[in-house]
Every structure is written in C-alpha cells, then in structure tokens.
Amino acid sequence: MRASLIQIAVNEDESVDSRRQRVAALVREQAGADLVVLPELWTTGAFAHEEFGREAEPLEGPTYETMAKAASDAGVWLHAGSIPERDPDGPLYNTSLVFSPSGEPVAAYRKIHRFGFDKGEAVLMGAGRDLVTVRLPGTTLGVATCYDLRFPELFRGLVDAGAETLVIPAGWPERRRAHWTLLAQARAVENQAFVLACGTAGTHAGVPQAGHSIVVDPWGEVLAEAGPDEEVLTVDFDPAKVAATREQFPALKDRVLGLEPPRR
Ligand SMILES: NC(=O)CCC(=O)C(=O)O
Questions:
Q1: Labelling 103: which of 75, 135, 223, 263 has CA 20 to 30 A away?
Q2: pLDDT reported for residue 90
Q3: How many CA atoms, within 13 angstroms, populate the side-chain half-sphere of residue 194?
Q4: How far away, in angstroms, is 147 Cα from ligand 1 center?
C-alpha cells in the first residue's frame, strides 16, 4: 500500500481559498497512491483561534466539495485532515473528513480531546464522542486528531474496533516535537499498528509548527519521516505486517481489563 502524507505549510500570507486550491492540486498530483493524508485544521491553522469562527464551514462546505473532487480526480482514498465545522444546531467542531477514490464521503470524525486547557480550541469547539474506523481494501483505518495522540485509551478503543492503521492529522508545534515523535512510536508499538501522523509546517499565530510527519510500523520502526518544511512524504507499507506482528508477539492478547482501584 502506498500512502502520501502532505505536510502543508500553514502561514498567514496565504488566504484560505488559495491554500484550498493549492492543496487540491497537491492531492491530484498523488494519483497512483492508495491513501493520501492531510493535516489538522490546515485551512486556518490549528493555533489560529480567531480564524476558527470566521472560517468555519458546514460539513459539506467548500473544503468538503474541493476535497471530494480532488479525491476522485486522483482516484485515491483521501483523509482530508480536519476543518473547523459549523454545526447548524450546535458549537464548532474540529472535524476530519475521509473520502473514497470516487469522491464519496465515507467518514467524519469530530476530535474528542480538545487542546488548550481553558483556552483556544478547548473553549471554542465542542468535543466529539464517537470513535471512527474506515474499512479500506487491505486495512482498517482508525482515526484520531493531534492532541488525541496523548490519550492511549482512545487508540485501544480503535484497536478493539478493528483498526490496523492509525491515521493522525495534526498541527503540532515545534516546541513539543520530541513528544510527537515519541508518542507516535509509542502508539504504534503498544497497539501493534501502523501510525501515519501528518503535521503542518510553517508558522501561524506566532506558533512555529514541528513538521516531521512520521510513518511508524507495528514494531515501532520509523519507515519515513519528513523534515521541518512543506513536503510530501510517500511511503510503501505492507498492511499484512499488523497481523504478522500481533501473531508473532501477541502482547495485545495479554491485556487485563477491569482492574480494581487500590483499597484504602
Ligand atoms: N492542535 C493540537 O491538538 C495541539 C496539541 C499539542 O500541541 C500537544 O499535545 O502538545
């Protein structure tokens, strides 16, 4: 299986509409890949909090339309990263979109863990509640977004639902790049799954982005890693390695669930 992670530079000198058109062209250039992955909130920037309300879109808004067309033009499965979604009956959400090679929407995932503690995304957006997996020929994707990477129980839920390839769009800052790499490898090792983690480059709202998108195999080996700037990271991987790793080293079968809390 061939995956291309498009590590987009999100800078303030480019309008949302120009970036949308530029990214659609980059997706079309990936014809021949099986799966293309974009980062989190690449229309606005994950830290451009003031833009969330201004640029929020209904689920089937301009980014959805443009990405559905780009997926079908390229003939690829497209994880189109996330958008600030305006739910007509509720708050904003940080929502990821996935399209089939014919441009059909196959999944929408509302980010469960919002970043910012008592500021930014954590107060401006609502929290998703639902785990999302997507069946592709040869593998099942489990989707998560950026800060979700810090919460291993979410990934165990995805594995229990059949996920073998964990796809994580992000807008991760340079300041915590070491955490990004470490956590991507940890999620791959503990879940014996591929991790495809696609971040952004550039600087927006004064926050330099880490770049360094990464693909990790179920043994924790880094198959490919991007540099700090805009780049398309392309990797070939064998999804059958998940079952082989889980069979040869069956640690997931040794999970003990429902432990008792300490007695006082
Ligand atoms: N956009 C995010 O979720 C940022 C997460 C982050 O900076 C961190 O977990 O550290």
A1: 223
A2: 83
A3: 25
A4: 4
Predicted TM-score (pTM) of this structure? 0.98
Q: Domains in the chain, start-ordered, CATH in brackets?
A: 2-254 (3.60.110.10)
Closest CA to 58 of 32, 100, 19, 97: 97
Ligand 1 centre to CA of 16 (Å) is: 21
Could you tell me if the CB of 180 is within 6 A of ligand 1? Answer: no
Buried-exposed string 75-91: b where 16+ CB fall within 10 A, e elsewhere: bbbbbbbbbbbbeeeee
- CA-based max dimension of the chain: 62
Contact predicate 211/199, CB 8 Å: yes
ipTM, interface predicted TM-score of the complex = 0.99
Q: Determine contact, residues 6/37, Cβ cutoff 8 Å.
A: yes
Which residues of the chain carry a pLDDT beneath 50?
A: none
Looking at residue 264, its pLDDT comes to 85
Q: What is the residue with the minimal CA distance to atom 10 of ligand 1?
A: 176
At 118 the pLDDT is 93
